Amino acid sequence: AASSLSNGVKVNAKARETLSEIDKKLKLINKPAVKSIKSEDGDIIDCVDIYKQPAFDYPALKNHTIQLRPSFNIPSGKLDRRNESFRPVAVQTWQKSGSCPNGTVPIRRIRRQDLLTAASLEQFGRKFPEISYAANKTDAKHSKFVSLNSKTVNLDRLVNRSINPKLYGDKLPRFFAYWTRDAYKSTGCFDLTCTGFVQTGTQIALGASISPWSSTAGPQYYIPIAMSRDPQTGNWWLTYGDAVIGYWPGALFDYLKQSAIFVEWGGQVYSPNVKKTPHTKTAMGSGSFASSLYGSACYIDHIRIIDYSLQLKYPQWVGTWADEEDCYDAYNLIQGYTVEPVFFFGGPGQNPHCM
């Protein structure tokens, strides 16, 4: 069989075919940039024409008319912000190196090495079933809005701070989003690694790293996130603080066209070694159990939903659960009617009680 030398690595015809497939995939994912920004963390952020972003490769969105702004005022401003000056917010690292011009959206560039380390090109950017959870769950039927001030969040249409070396190639904490319409069976992906999410804002790049980081017994940094359904279009908007990122079109989903049936906040550990022996050593949150509380455990506060009354409120019913309590756990701290409840979660993974 013929062979050749490429990038200092000896490859055969099959390998050349694989590289060709990878380059085709990269061309499909990475759209032409109006401007590119090199971040100090190694990422490249491409400022892509808003009308040429990956979302419109999705068959159901071929004739989609982009909604540039929500048709309503997202009610995050109604939250109690009296102590907001004492709550430093984590920002994305690439923002230190530049900004995207109006009419473009910031998209983290996928590299060849990202695809080379993927299990397969078809599975790149997708989630598998090997997951362990610790969550705070509400059955708030008809809720159309979720607002959080948190270090880590997790929703069914997932928005989170994540460390995912297989996807991002490093262990930096990153702000990511994930969507699926069939419980991860055949649809959905992280960030913009597949089509679906329509980005409209210039400030936040899905999948980009965030800084500074919270530390045990040190400063705590927050990620204020809201997700809300547009009553006129049925699109689900995602915001980071005051920055509107974009939306999932209502046409993507069957069961979210009118409302959300339930909402979850919490954490996940993604590994082939959960729920088996030996258990993964991958930590959730800070790596401390929920009982460690402030200064050690990861937590979420200012949890809110909005129902058909259009009033922000704490969910009427909230329950906590963890599917591997000896490895990761969850605790909702309620100190009285005048104190904001705080949800703690996390754990070290493998330990003497979790083998």
Characterization of this structure:
- The chain has 355 residues and is mainly beta.
- The chain folds into two domains: 15-62 and 92-117 and 157-248, no CATH class; 132-153 and 260-355, no CATH class.
- The protein has three helices and 22 strands.
- The chain has helices at residues 13-29, 112-116, 165-168; strands at 3-6, 9-12, 33-38, 44-49, 91-92, 104-108, 131-138, 145-150, 158-162, 174-179, 189-190, 198-199, 210-211, 223-229, 236-240, 243-248, 263-270, 298-306, 312-313, 319-322, 329-333, 342-346.
- Strands 8, 12, 14, 15, 16, 18, 19, 21 and 22 form a nine-stranded antiparallel sheet that branches.
- Strand 15 (236-240) and strand 16 form a beta hairpin.
- The radius of gyration is 21 Å and the shape is globular.
- The relative contact order is 0.18.
- Mean pLDDT is 82; it is low at 1-11, 77-85 and 140-157.
Helices and strands in order, then pairings?
Layout: E1 3-6, E2 9-12, H1 13-29, E3 33-38, E4 44-49, E5 91-92, E6 104-108, H2 112-116, E7 131-138, E8 145-150, E9 158-162, H3 165-168, E10 174-179, E11 189-190, E12 198-199, E13 210-211, E14 223-229, E15 236-240, E16 243-248, E17 263-270, E18 298-306, E19 312-313, E20 319-322, E21 329-333, E22 342-346
Antiparallel strand pairs: 1-2, 3-4, 4-6, 5-13, 7-17, 7-20, 8-14, 8-18, 9-10, 10-11, 12-16, 14-15, 15-16, 18-19, 18-22, 21-22
Pfam families: Neprosin (PF03080), Neprosin_AP (PF14365)
Domain Neprosin PEP catalytic: 95-355
Organism: Citrus sinensis (Sweet orange)
